[in-house]
Amino acid sequence: MEAYAGEWVQLLIRWIHLITGIAWIGSSFYFVWLDNSLLPPADPV
Predict the structure, then answer these.
(1) Residue-wise DSSP of the chain
(2) Which of 16, 25, 31, 45 has its CA 20 to 30 A from that of 7?
(3) Averaged pLDDT score across all residues of the chain
(4) From CA 32, how far away is CA 29, in angstroms rounded?
(5) pTM of the prediction?
């Protein structure tokens, strides 16, 4: 029974790791977009 619980813990940790990685990459793209959108528009001269 202990090994069975250990497998569930490993599965939970893997899913948390996957979701955290996706969130980290997504937030990186968001902050790059936000930084670019806060720049003043280029002068069309």
Answers:
(1) -HHHHHHHHHHHHHHHHHHHHHHHHHHHHHHHHHHHHTSPPPP--
(2) 25
(3) 91
(4) 5
(5) 0.70
